[in-house]
Amino acid sequence: MEKNYNPEQKMGKTMNKQKVVEKIKIMDAPKEKTEIKTESEDTEIKKISVPETSKEAQKVSGKKKVERVKKEEAVVNAKSLPISTLFSIALCKFIKGKKIEKALVDLEEVLAKKKAVPIKGEYAHKKGKRMTSGKYPKNATEYFIKLIKSLQANSNYNGIENPIIVEAIANKASEPYGRFGKVRRKRTHVRLEAREKKK
Asked: Could you tell me which CATH number the domain at 73-196 has?
């Protein structure tokens, strides 16, 4: 089959293609708002703009407002955290009944090793009010700080002004096997709940 080397014929084909593309663009272009002119008795001309789509008509008429249901409590549920259940139970007792801001300050002090978390068992004695033995659980404390910050955000969203940690529960989760099935990994479920302080 011989090639067509006629330049005029080639130009004609490309021009036809361009015309087709321009027609498609014109068809796809959004239509502008049409203006209808009406004459009144005093021969005044009023312009009425007709919205093109139904969405614009909805904007003109107004949107429906959905009222959000106000909750009295803020809750955080964390599943299978890789932290010790024993330390989590101790931290839950440590923060329960405190304001969220106070709990955050206390946990920051635990990380800085200025304040110990009271833990029952054969641990070294620590200085503190009503405390015999205690520890500074770093890993668990870091996770609890994240959870309490999340609880604070939830309570702000729900409109709770003076949130107090009413419920702090730590439960043992299912412990998966480690590599080669020799070790069982630590896993803990944690639930925190905050409510507004009653006057």
From this structure: 3.90.470.10
